[in-house]
From TrEMBL:
EC number: 2.5.1.87
Name recorded for this polypeptide: Dehydrodolichyl diphosphate synthase complex subunit NUS1
Organism encoding this protein: Hemiprocne comata
Reaction(s) catalysed by this chain's protein: n isopentenyl diphosphate + (2E,6E)-farnesyl diphosphate = a di-trans,poly-cis-polyprenyl diphosphate + n diphosphate
Keyword check for Membrane: yes
Chief location category: endoplasmic reticulum
Length: 232
């Protein structure tokens, strides 16, 4: 689906404004409380060719700090997923830098199954996704259901939205995304969770490189002000 355009000032400014880390933490907590609604699950979709681990880690930590429970990180080349240990290391580093002594209050669970040994006490839950978690996951779920029918554990009349949701591995335990921030010039989410974003608000930003907290919070403020009519 095409991403809705949203005007931001030009990126490239310093990522953090002057002020102490304690002041920033206090501001992030209060910002989350002032919003009329906050996404439960946010998707961070990078369509640019050169992803930045540091900038993506900052976005994840900001999500944690304002109170977003589930975060999905996606790039269409699967770079973040192939290098998820590097991303996790950067997130832990940013936690220390941005949250300081408060970092224990904002721990993150790394939900990818192959990195289960890195799960920490959960405040926010993170999944790193790639194109194989999109259409390919739907195909795999359909194949699994057909096998269940062939083994007479299911009948074809059992297939409905909830059954397919349960068969999908990419978002097991995750609600559908409420908000997707799409970064880059491509007017598409490039395969990000096609089954799950039919009701998702999508906001397009020029780039995730050198993104500021002000840009991030402006997107949250825009989302909070949106009236979603659910097709009515």
């Amino acid at each position: 689906p095409a991403a809705g355009a949203f005007a931001f000032r030009k990126t490239g400014a310093a990522r953090r404004r002057p002020g102490t880390a304690a002041q920033s933490r206090q501001r992030w907590r209060s910002d989350g409380r002032t919003l009329r609604k906050l996404p439960v699950h946010m998707g961070l979709v990078v369509t640019e060719e050169e992803p930045s681990y540091a900038d993506m880690a900052s976005l994840v930590v900001w999500c944690m700090a304002v109170g977003i429970s589930y975060v999905s990180v996606y790039d269409h080349n699967g770079i973040f997923k192939r290098n998820n240990s590097r991303l996790m290391d950067e997130i832990l580093k940013q936690q220390q830098e941005l949250l300081g002594l408060d970092c224990s209050k904002y721990t993150v669970e790394f939900a990818n199954q192959d990195k289960a040994d890195q799960v920490l006490n959960c405040q926010s839950t993170l999944k790193v996704l790639s194109p194989e978690d999109g259409k390919a996951d739907i195909v795999k779920a359909a194949q699994n259901f057909c096998q269940l029918v062939a083994q007479q554990q299911r009948t074809y009349t059992d297939l409905d939205v909830n059954v397919l949701d349960n068969l999908l591995s990419s978002t097991n335990g995750f609600p559908d995304p409420d908000l997707v921030l799409k970064f880059g010039p491509v007017d598409s989410t490039l395969g990000f969770l096609p089954w799950h974003i039919r009701l998702t608000e999508i906001i397009s930003l020029p780039s995730h490189l050198n993104i500021t907290y002000e840009d991030f919070f402006s997107a949250l403020h825009h989302y909070a002000a949106c009236e979603q009519r659910w097709g009515k």
